[in-house]
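--- STAGE predict ---
source: upstream dedup step, 1 unique chain passed
mode: sequence only
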Amino acid sequence: MPVSATGRRISRVTKPKNTNPLLLRRNSSAHFNFTNHPRRKPSLPTSKSAPEGRDDGAFESRLTDAGRIASLATDQPVHDVAQLMRWIHDHMFADMPERGAGMNSTRIAEVLNYRRALPPIVTVAHVHALGNSPTTTERRIAELVRAGVVRKVLVPGRGAGGAAVGEGLALTEEWERRVREAAGLEDHVKEKYIRVMRANPTAATISGSHFTTSEAAALTAAGFLTSTSATISNNDLFSHPGAPSLGSLSSLSTASSSAASGSLGAVGGTNAFHDRGGGGGGLARQTSCTNTSGALARSEFTFSLPSMGPYLRLLLSARAHLLALLAKSSLKYREAPRELLRERWSGGVAGEDAVSRARGARGDFGATLPGRTKKWKAFYGLEFDWVLEECLGSGLVDVFETGSVGLGVRAT
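--- STAGE serialize ---
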């Protein structure tokens, strides 16, 4: 049978008979090694990264300074100091968003309670930032203080240099309303405190002789008085009646040196238990109370309002945040247009223009909800204009005309 009749086809491929296996080995040096080369997408252009501490929208050139603005009085409708104080306090916070706030009911209640608890304080620097003339404003403040319409509040030890808070102002009417609404004070203590305030309209401090020990303790616990001296202390309460206070090492070493060692007088005498705060009656207990009353008469208290600590922390942190935004906007000149700072303070939330209001009516609030921004998370909705006016009056920033992009803000 011929070969072509079978199902097997004839292969025409000829194989080499004497194949050297050494020639079939691959030469590794002939191939490229890409392990040490970084992977790069050719479609994306390479760009230099921004320096640390500055965002991509920072200004490289300096803004045109067409004239410094010393006061922002044109931005508010009132000019009298008393009305101006009310206007500043009423425009401290932004209104709670009705829709798309980004906060649940618990957070909204927390924000509203925080705002309500803050004292009605306005710094003197803030009033000067909105006043037409510093001399006229200072003269008017002095007149209102002497008339008992306004009271000054001393804020020592807060801030340093130009960042110091200094003095605050409060309307006497609002102050007395806070006293009457205080929950932990008895009525006769409230009335006595108000009488002392009215009898000393220009005094920022008061002697402790105006109040009893229990009254002073209650007013201090409520936040309406703060102690300016350490006259009343545990050393006074536990010192020997008639002896000097044990606040120094010399008085401590000589407290019982007059008695012989091993005698009853060396350990304080027969009334040692009462002198060290023990219970029961007796002459020693009455003498100790007399010593405490004398220490109260020698002490001084400062008129204050409750929640001054949270107010000062909010004020100082807001100032620092605004200066940080200026530093990020321009590392070299530390300046930026006011509207750009306003946008960054708000966290990129849509503004109050017609387009933004129309988008909000449709339920489109942009990529960032107000409750997610630092303005609402850390500052409880504090307004940008309020912080800017505070920094301007304190001398931390300068406001100037640019002629092209509106007002400019520069850190001093």
